[in-house]
Amino acid sequence: MDKYFKDITSVKIPAYIYLDDRAIGFDGNYEKTIAEIEKFQVYWK
């Protein structure tokens, strides 16, 4: 996993997508998570 993540923190820096328990969740299924990221749309557009 080190090759995918630079740092893990509880601080929410500005980002397009967060993977956590309140944004796009990760349940161990990478294909499902990638599909959710690809169809993600911000609420203000």
Strand content: under 5%
Span of the ends, CA to CA: 32 Å
Q: Helix share of residues?
A: 10-25%
Tally of DSSP helical segments: 1
| Overall pLDDT metric | 79
Q: List low-pLDDT spans.
A: none
Number of strands: 0
User: What is the count of distinct domains?
Assistant: 1
Q: What is the C-alpha radius of gyration, as a whole number of Å?
A: 12 Å
Overview of this protein structure:
The chain is 22% helix and 0% strand. It has 45 residues and is an all-alpha fold. The chain has one domain.
Helix and strand layout, with pairings?
Blueprint (H helix, E strand, L loop, with lengths): L29 H10 L6
Short description, anyone?
The protein is an all-alpha fold and 45 residues long. Helix content is 22%, strand content 0%.
Features:
single chain; mainly alpha; 1 helix
